[in-house]
Amino acid sequence: MSVAPAKPLPPRRLSVAPMLDWTDRHCRHFHRLLSPHAWLYTEMITTGALMHGDVARHLRFNEEEHPVALQLGGSEPEALARSARLAEEWNYDEVNLNCGCPSERVQNGAFGACLMAEPELVRDGIKAMQDVVSIPVTVKHRIGIDRIEDYDFVRDFVGTVAEGGARTFIVHARNAWLKGLSPKENREVPPLRYEFAWQLKRDFPQLEIIVNGGISKTEAIVAQLEHIDGVMIGREAYQNPWMLVEWEQALFDAEWAPSRADVIKALVAYCKREYNEHGTPLRAIVRHILGLANGLPGARNFRRILSDPKLLKDAKPELLWTAWEQVQPSNSP
């Protein structure tokens, strides 16, 4: 288990969204090297997986990941409470309930975005979690479902759920269409309505409101922070990870200035540690860093080397230096 940090946690001005198959503990370790203050979120983990699966496999994370939040998928208050207790026992800094995922698989489990139609059930689940943990219990949701596009819908959802004790709401500023769109299309087709998140902050000034969806530029983040408390970024942080350095500088520490070579050096050490302690193959880690050299000469060769199955088979961590030499001369890493 990770040991919770003694120092105060940073504000949630910047966070990296939970992304299925992407934001595992290796990805989060990499992102932490780029931004010391961003909040990091796990992939969504279902209450069923924690009740009946390998808890250590699902919840193990690295101490340096703090602040880190566990995102849960579920709807049954008792199971949510048990899972939240596990999150606190494993020293997560926050537990977050997913009320925004629109996939049919999630809907079949009666959780995700379809929970927005049952705010009282969400309220009860939040209260059940709040009653058994001292860490923050937060909610990530959409602004509506299907063709329900009135602001009143999300206002009433937030107001009801807040009765259960939630004080932080992460608002993906699009509707979720439960039928007719794929998860990918649900991230792109429904229009963005940031003004709904801004209005939530005006209507509920006592709540922490964080906006998510379609935000990628530093100027856009700064502009959003004039209206709400924080910004959560997903695919841009994953596909162009060096942006995390720029965001860290803009929002937390103007003097923050790591080099990409520093990051490679730290990753080599991490890969060695992971292999020695857990037998983690190199490919499980380097798949998350393919965008590290984006925008630099040699970036394509960097990606090619670190995604080549033949080169990765039985490869040593020093392969990262081999890849980096494609971007920069080996005598000046």
Automatic annotation (TrEMBL):
Sequence positions that bind FMN: 18-20, 71, 140, 172, 212-214, 234-235
Active site: 101
Record's keyword terms, sorted: Flavoprotein, FMN, NADP, Oxidoreductase, RNA-binding, tRNA processing, tRNA-binding
EC number: 1.3.1.91
Presence of the UniProt keyword Cell division in the record: no
Record site feature (Interacts with tRNA), residues: 98, 184, 187, 300, 303
Cofactor(s) demanded: FMN
Catalytic activity: 5,6-dihydrouridine(20a) in tRNA + NAD(+) = uridine(20a) in tRNA + NADH + H(+); 5,6-dihydrouridine(20) in tRNA + NADP(+) = uridine(20) in tRNA + NADPH + H(+); 5,6-dihydrouridine(20a) in tRNA + NADP(+) = uridine(20a) in tRNA + NADPH + H(+); 5,6-dihydrouridine(20) in tRNA + NAD(+) = uridine(20) in tRNA + NADH + H(+)
Record domain DUS-like FMN-binding: where: 16-320
PANTHER family: FMN-LINKED OXIDOREDUCTASES SUPERFAMILY PROTEIN (PTHR42907)
Protein's UniProt name: tRNA-dihydrouridine(20/20a) synthase
Organism of provenance: Uliginosibacterium silvisoli
Gene that specifies this protein: dusA
